Amino acid sequence: MELFIQQIVAGVATGAIYACVALAVVMIYQAIHHLNFAQGEMAMFSTYIAWQMLQWGLPYWVVFPLVILVSFVGGFAIERIVFKPIENAPVLSHIVIFIALFAIFNSFAGFIWDFTIKAVPSPFGDGPLWEGAMIGKHQAGMIGVTLIVLLLLWGFFTFTRVGLAMRAAAVNPESARLVGIRVSMMTALGWGMASAIGAVAGMLIAPVVFLEPNMMLSILLYGFAGAVLGGLTSPLGAVIGGFIVGVVENLAGTYIPVIGGELKLPIALFLIVAVLLVKPAGLLGRRVVQRV
Predict the structure, then answer these.
(1) Smallest Cα–Cα separation from 36: which of 245, 230, 187, 244?
(2) Residue 40 and residue 218: Cα distance in Å, rounded?
(3) Transmembrane segments in this chain: where (predicted)?
(4) Domain-by-domain residue ranges, the chain?
(5) pLDDT band of 44, cuts 50, 70, 90
(6) Spatial distance between the Cα atoms of 20 and 246, rounded to a whole number of angstroms
(7) Is residue 68 helix, strand or coil?
(8) N or C: where does the chain have the smaller number of CB atoms within 10 Å of the terminal CB?
C-alpha cells in the first residue's frame, strides 16, 4: 500500500509537468487549430537560457520570471513573424513550419551549448519534504508552482477583459471580430502565453531529467497524450489529462512487469490512440459540428 501511494504521489508530480505542456499545446491549438510539434523544443531552449543565466550567477527566483518573460516575447514574435504571413496557408504548410522550428531550436541549442548533459540545480532542495515523507522537496515544488500557474491562468481568463477576449477569439473568431476584438492579436498573445507556460515546464523538469537538447521529446508526447485525453478544446481537460497520464505512467511502470521502465513511453501513444477511438473529443472537449 505504501508503494502504491508513493507511486500516486510521484505520478501527480510528473503529471504537473505534463499538465503544463498539455495546457501550452491546447492554447496554441485553440489559437490556430493545429498542434505545435516544436512546443517541447521551445521549452527546452528557454530552459537553456535559464541555465545560462544561472551560470552567470543570477539567483534562481530572478531567473525564473525573466525567462518566462523572454519566452513570452519569443512566442509572440514567432507568431507575428512566422505564422501571421501564412495564417491562410494549407495545413501542410503549418506542419512544415512546425517541423522546421523543431529542427532549428534543437540544432541551435546544441550549437550554442553543445550536446553534453548538464545538471540543473533544484531551487527547492533535495531529499524528502519532511522526514519520512513520500514526496520530495522538488516534487512538492513542481506541484505547487504548477498549481499557482493554473490558478493565475484561471483568474486571467475569468476576470480580465483580455482573457475573455482570448476565449471569445478561440471559440468563435468571426463573431469576435464583429464586436471589435483583434483576433490576430489574441492569437499572438496565446502563442506568447503557451511559450511562457512551456518554459515553466522545462525549468521545473530539468533538475529531474537533466538538461540536453532532446530532453523535452518524451515529455511533449506525454503532454500531447494529456491534451488529447482531456480534450484539445478544454484547458481544464488538458490539465486533468496531464495529471492522469502522469499517474497512469507511474502505476503501469511499477505494477505491470512487461512494461517496466523501457516501455513507459508507448503508454502515452496508446492513450492517444485509445482516446481518439473511443471519445475523439476527449474527456472534457466539445464536439465541433460544421454545417456544410
Answers:
(1) 187
(2) 9
(3) 12-32, 58-79, 91-113, 140-164, 185-209, 265-285
(4) 2-278
(5) very high
(6) 12
(7) helix
(8) C
| DSSP helix/strand/coil, 211 | strand
* Number of neighbours of residue 153 by Cβ within 10 angstroms: 17
Does 292 have pLDDT greater than 50? Answer: no
How far apart, in Å, are the Cα atoms of 63 and each of 41, 109, 221? Answer: 19, 18, 27
- The one-character DSSP state at 84 is G
Amino acid identity of residue 88, one-letter, is N
User: What is the CATH number assigned to the segment(s) 2-278?
Assistant: 1.10.3470
Distance CA 134, CA 138 (A): 12
8 A C-beta contact, residue 71 and residue 47 = no
Cβ atoms of 11 and 247 within 8 Å: the answer is: yes
Beta-carbon contacts of 128 under 8 Å, excluding residues fewer than 6 positions away, are 134, 135, 136, 137
Segment holding 17, helix H or strand E: helix 2-32
**Residues 83 and 97 sit within 8 Å (Cβ to Cβ):** yes
3-state helix, strand, coil in the chain (%, to 5): 75, 0, 25
